[in-house]
Amino acid sequence: MHWTLVIPLKPLVLAKSRLGPSTGDSLRPGLALAFAQDTVAAAVASAAVRDVAVVTADARAGRELAALGARIVPDEPAQGLNAALAHGVAAVRAERPDAAVAALNADLPALRPHELARVLDSAAQFPRSFLPDAAGIGTTLLAAAPHTELRPVFGTASRARHTASGARELTLDGVDSVRQDVDTGDDLRAALALGVGPRTATAAAQLLIAD
């Protein structure tokens, strides 16, 4: 099975607000864009991925991510993460009603294409499934098989919310890069330890210079 990934991204000026204490607000938007660029580049390169749709209202991010091969879907609802995902899935399935779709976080700068493929191959066994984040509280990927609604419930404690919604939790070893999202300075250090993509590495080097 090949998947269409739907990746939501806030306007860069608003993204990754919890990184502010570690990075400063002047560098934070550039880091958010770098995370998304490395995430999209790895996703596009994954053998299990057919294509990638990014839902965003940010013009700069749209240009940069389109250059990496993503389809840009304007975030017309502008009502938060779950509404953006529902809108993106609707846009994808308006053209391909039988598409297998997966929501993927935009802040996975250490993402490895082969680890993503392992997660998606596992997800193909279930109508709906999800991968918890490295903290064990949130969700980094939510998948829906063809003709199955995605029904995203991202937000606080989304691991519990997705479990309660009937989605199957994927339990895989060796897919740390798909689980390590970045919300805080500690998360960024953990991602850097895994090995991030080139754009995040460059942005993180600016942080070291700033320090």
Give a written overview of the molecule:
α2 runs antiparallel to α9 (198-210). The protein has 211 residues and is an alpha/beta fold. The chain has a seven-stranded mixed beta sheet with strand order 3-2-1-4-6-5-7, with helices on both faces. The chain has helices at residues 20-23, 28-44, 59-66, 81-95, 113-123, 158-164, 176-179, 185-194, 198-210, and strands at residues 3-9, 49-56, 71-74, 100-104, 128-132, 139-144, 168-169.
How is this structure best summarized?
By secondary structure, the protein is an alpha/beta fold. It is 42% helix and 18% strand. Strands 3-2-1-4-6-5-7 form a seven-stranded mixed sheet, with helices on both faces.
What strand line-up does the widest sheet have? 3-2-1-4-6-5-7
- How many distinct beta strands? 7
Strand residues, percent? 15-25%
CATH superfamily: Spore Coat Polysaccharide Biosynthesis Protein SpsA, Chain A
Overall number of domains? 1
Parts with pLDDT < 50 across at least 5 consecutive residues: none
Shape: globular
Q: Using the CA coordinates, give the radius of gyration.
A: 16 Å
| Helical residues, percent | 40-55%
SSE order: EHHEHEHEHEEHEHHH
Structural class: alpha/beta
- End-to-end CA span: 46 Å
Q: Outline the biggest β-sheet.
A: 7 strands, mixed
Instruction: Using the coordinates shown, work out and report the CATH topology.
Output: Spore Coat Polysaccharide Biosynthesis Protein SpsA, Chain A
Mind telling me the CATH class?
Alpha Beta
Give the averaged pLDDT, no decimals: 94
- Number of contiguous helices: 9
**CATH architecture field:** Alpha-Beta Complex
